[in-house]
Amino acid sequence: MSTTPDTPTGSKPNPTIIEAPEGTPFLDITRDFDAAPAQVFRAYTEPKLVARWLGPRDLEMDIEEYDARPGGRYRYVHHGGHLGEVRAGFRGVFHTVEADRLIIQTFEFEGVPNEVKLDICRFSEVDGKTRVTTRSVFPSMEAREGALASGMKHGIQDSMERLTELLAEGV
Amino acid sequence: MSTTPDTPTGSKPNPTIIEAPEGTPFLDITRDFDAAPAQVFRAYTEPKLVARWLGPRDLEMDIEEYDARPGGRYRYVHHGGHLGEVRAGFRGVFHTVEADRLIIQTFEFEGVPNEVKLDICRFSEVDGKTRVTTRSVFPSMEAREGALASGMKHGIQDSMERLTELLAEGV
């Protein structure tokens, strides 16, 4: 487990808790945001907003498709920054999209084709904040270890910081 | 692990191997069929064929939608037989559908809403037969145990027998 404060200087930070229970293919992320569930949910589902926070800070994100409804597909490409000339594509489909409450979607990094995980993302109100808990279910123990070894935690921390900043703008 | 021969009397049976590794949320099924990969793949993707083998033998299956392509959705209802008045609905989306090789899809039993698993189904030719290996990835250890306790193995065994019979008809 790692806990890192990630809000801008001066504000009271909400920690991002990342847990990778030993011997399981799960990765659990818990994070509170100082915003209403509807606002956070919107940042997770509207492509223009998603492009502003999802991924490491140094990368750019081109969204080709982001159709957040059951049966909808998404595909986006990260590029620039530490990727150099590499264009990293990601794709998946939405199984469940329940406004302000729940998103269940598949996720595939095209650099490791056919290794698909399932992401279950729950939104709930806790003490006037919105708590987002995400369980990633990998298709094998090795797949989770590979993702962690590739620097996934850094991407998660950056994403949560960037989302906090976006929400602070009142979008 | 349980191994049960399941072909009609007189023919050499191919066993259905079901493995539920301790301490994991995985359920692995391996089964060979005396048919070409293209034929088996067709039985997994054409709704009229799927309705003839998927599920326990005593049930009827109504397919509402079965759109086996990336981003396609499916929903079907099992009824009759041991279910009595109950109508059991199942739904999901296809992430990957690669002809004769691979299907990756989500799966939800509507009786346990929002408990979604991922099914990864690989087709390969082994010694002139088609081997189908399916890994089901449950969202928790408890979810897998619940599914096993509900009699899932019986449904799998019946399905594999029925599919063998269907393929023997040369469909």
Automatic annotation (TrEMBL), chains A, B:
<dbReference type="InterPro" id="IPR023393">
    <property type="entry name" value="START-like_dom_sf"/>
</dbReference>
<feature type="domain" description="Activator of Hsp90 ATPase homologue 1/2-like C-terminal">
    <location>
        <begin position="34"/>
        <end position="167"/>
    </location>
</feature>
<feature type="compositionally biased region" description="Polar residues">
    <location>
        <begin position="1"/>
        <end position="14"/>
    </location>
</feature>
<comment type="similarity">
    <text>Belongs to the AHA1 family.</text>
</comment>
<dbReference type="Pfam" id="PF08327">
    <property type="entry name" value="AHSA1"/>
</dbReference>
<feature type="region of interest" description="Disordered">
    <location>
        <begin position="1"/>
        <end position="21"/>
    </location>
</feature>
<dbReference type="InterPro" id="IPR013538">
    <property type="entry name" value="ASHA1/2-like_C"/>
</dbReference>
<protein>
    <submittedName>
        <fullName>Activator of Hsp90 ATPase 1 family protein</fullName>
    </submittedName>
</protein>
